[in-house]
Amino acid sequence: MSLEEMKPALENALKAFNEYKGVVETIQTKTNTLEGKLDALDLAKFDKIEKAIGDAVELNQKTEARAKALEDNQKALEAALNRGPLGSVTDEKATRIKFKKAINAFARKDTGQSGKSQLYFDDFVKEEYPNDVELKALSVGTDPNGGYLVTPEMGGIISTKVYESSPMRALASVQQIGSLAYEYIIDNDEAGSGWAGETSSRPTTNTPTLGKITITAHELYANPKATQTVLDDASIDMEAWLAGKVAEKFARDEATAFVTGNGIAKPRGIMSYTSGTDITAEQVEQVNSGSASTFTYAGLVDLQNALKEPYQGNARFLIRRASNAFLLKLVDGEGRPIFNMSYDKNAGLEPTIMGKPVSFAADVAAVASNALAMAYGDFRAAYLIVDRIGLRVLRDPYTDKPYVSFYTTKRVGGAVINFEALKIQKISS
């Protein structure tokens, strides 16, 4: 109730007080002169009057106290506002000391652990510092002003950044090996032959030759560290989380190497071979797109038809996802889209162009002049991945105390083994 709202009640109480005051004085006179002659009715009236006077006095005292408190708060607020920003070091220091004392006092107070009602910090400030405007302004927006006392609630799910990768491991052949390297024998020649008459001589024909490709299992490693305290006290299983993150990074790193790796201490990627049709020289044919800035329908036709028929049954296109836009923008002479790559993922249908499925690989180059922006072929026949050892983790809590190292390794290799089964689309110069 405000002071203005209390004024009518106060005036009525004072008026009653003055009226009863005269009555009391009269009764007191009678009491002094007629002591012992008061009947029960007079005594009851006297008690009623006395209670009314007491109530009026109590109300008056409460009203005066409330008015004084409002006046003090108003003065304190005006003083705080007139002070201006805390540019003064003295003012800021005094405020921080006051905040610190209030926080410490609250921390030491029984807040409801013994069957008492829970006490919140706002209620504590109102109770212990009723006239302190600065303390009443405590908020969780800044740490010194109460933010330290308000801890956020942790959700049960960690939002993880998504990285695009390449599906080479799913498309290529995979071989588990038990040694440093894998030697793949290539039958890339044919036997000589010829026609001969009944009595003609039969000269010796050419004997086919064999080739060999050696695929070395290279080491991929990671060595993250965490303190033992974090491992003990974190709200999640940090070891499992780190292992999962390393495994995901390994998968992306090897996928990149399968596409663009140079073969030096890493697998050799499909895009790293020289252009040509000589398979004995380990060359992969590159077909120009017909444009320096995009794919063309004619270029796609040339690319598809450069692949020999035995490989067409399992052939597919491999492009960067963003390059899909260049395919969808190809139109005929009437301005109508040539390709409709809509698909139903729930039905398991893949996007297709020219009757062949399309896979998206983030490691394939973007469309640009001279870029190797597309691959087409039977990837299972063309590329071989060799796995020597899967993920292996060495937990080391001794070398760099107080840190625990998780030295993680994987040995993997990869290379093209059939150069006829793969063709590359190169954006023209």
TrEMBL record:
<dbReference type="InterPro" id="IPR024455">
    <property type="entry name" value="Phage_capsid"/>
</dbReference>
<dbReference type="InterPro" id="IPR054612">
    <property type="entry name" value="Phage_capsid-like_C"/>
</dbReference>
<feature type="coiled-coil region">
    <location>
        <begin position="53"/>
        <end position="80"/>
    </location>
</feature>
<keyword id="KW-0175">Coiled coil</keyword>
<feature type="domain" description="Phage capsid-like C-terminal">
    <location>
        <begin position="146"/>
        <end position="425"/>
    </location>
</feature>
<protein>
    <submittedName>
        <fullName>Phage major capsid protein</fullName>
    </submittedName>
</protein>
<dbReference type="Pfam" id="PF05065">
    <property type="entry name" value="Phage_capsid"/>
</dbReference>
